[in-house]
Amino acid sequence: MSTSRQLSLNLFVYPGGHHEAGWRYKGSDVKTLLDIGYYQDLARRAEAATFDALFFADGPALADNIRYASRFRVEPITWLSAIAAATSYIGLIATASTTYFEPYNLARLFASLDHISGGRAGWNIVTTSAEKAAHNFGLAEHPVHAERYERGREFVEVITSLWDSWEDDAVLADPASGIYADTSKIHTIDHVGKHFRVRGPLNTPRTPQGRPVYVQAGSSEDGRSFAAQYAEAIFTAHQTIGSAQEFYADIKRRAVALGRRPEHIKVLPGLSPFIGSTEREAQLLEDEFNDLIQPEFSLHQLRQMIGIDLSSFDLDGPFPRHLLDLEGTIASASRFQLVVDILNREELTIRQLINRLAGARGHFVKAGTPEQIADHIQDWFENGAADGFNIMPPWLTGGFDAFAEHVVPLLRKRGLFRERYEGTTLRDHFGLPRPQSRFTDPQRASA
């Protein structure tokens, strides 16, 4: 068993790949994007490369501009249950919204996934930023940012209590006595709060991991506070090592202030690699993808980030910085600030900016040789910017295959990444403890 600090690597699966034109690339097979066998095969490849987990995004509304990109959503818990049956080790992280689920139903869904997979479930906790989702759930308007996070905190408290409501030794299954469960170890939670009233207990025994790994994505002030309190892995976007180091240090500091151990929070920036045998070859590959961009789609994506419609502007003209609302409510959004930071560092045309964002929606895009990709990962990992990465292939499956075949062996050779799995659960892979039920009597548990 390795005693040195090891990278965590997740494969972030997006239909067609993460570049907005990835589905159009000659190496993609768009006809397989709703074939579960395709995803099961991809998961087996990631498991062969000993990745920590698959990561599935989700949202309760149709993505804008589906006309130009493969931005549909499959329900990830259902999808990952089928993938669980085809794999043995790799973790399974599904996104689910605290704004548009109820705690009891979601607790049952994730408990089932954790049981089905033998302890490999992770929950990416989101509050949902898509305003039009409200109209799919009978709401007149989307809750404001602060209210969504307030509900999210209460949601996590409720769902944690539900997953803890069966103590580990509640199931006796003793045929001789005829006693299946010790009901003194199955607890109502009797929660009454602003957003939820939930009696409990959950109608499912405690899961192999105790509860799924808590994952969070968000870099706003509310997001950082939420992550420091609850998250065990954080998916974040950074364009520079300096920005990543500031975020990393801030999250760890906040966690320590809350009495948590900093190593129990994995900070995992996104990385979308274009890999070539030479740097020039890798750059040409990225250019080939950018040539497939549909500007109407790209400008719409940019408008969502910065609140400005640039469709009437010359794409090859300078970006109109004077239009940025640096004092408005949108200025607090992490993606807005990311775009501003890019523009502060570089003088870009509108076309250059949308090309920059096309690869991974603001996550770091790196075109280079396998050695250069590995150097980037090692630099951030060893210099206080990351505990690992969410790998975001520009297209599938070729973009992932190139990383697994050419970069993973270099990371292993450098002693940064595992040769084999050393446990069977997602908590094992991340090096996280299995939490004790909050209802367990500490004195009885230590007896």
Describe the structure.
The chain is of the alpha/beta class. It has helices at 36-48, 76-84, 103-117, 145-164, 221-230, 241-257, 279-290, 295-306, 334-345, 350-358, 370-382, 398-413, 426-430, 442-446, and strands spanning 8-13, 53-56, 91-97, 121-126, 171-174, 179-181, 191-192, 197-198, 213-217, 233-236, 266-275, 364-368, 388-391. The longest helix has 20 residues, at 145-164. It starts with 7 loop residues before the first strand and ends with a helix. The relative contact order is 0.16.
What string, H for helix and E for strand, traces the elements in order?
Answer: EHEHEHEHEEEEEHEHEHHHHEHEHHH
**Sequence stretches where pLDDT stays below 50 over 5 or more residues:** none
How much is the radius of gyration in Å? 22 Å
| Main β-sheet description | 8 strands, parallel, barrel
Give the overall pLDDT as a whole number. Answer: 93
Q: Hey, roughly how much beta strand do the residues contain?
A: 5-15%
Shape: globular
Number of helices: 14
Q: What is the fold's blueprint, element by element?
A:
Blueprint: E1 8-13, H1 36-48, E2 53-56, H2 76-84, E3 91-97, H3 103-117, E4 121-126, H4 145-164, E5 171-174, E6 179-181, E7 191-192, E8 197-198, E9 213-217, H5 221-230, E10 233-236, H6 241-257, E11 266-275, H7 279-290, H8 295-306, H9 334-345, H10 350-358, E12 364-368, H11 370-382, E13 388-391, H12 398-413, H13 426-430, H14 442-446
Parallel strand pairs: 1-2, 1-13, 2-3, 3-4, 4-9, 9-10, 10-11, 11-12, 11-13
Antiparallel strand pairs: 5-6, 7-8
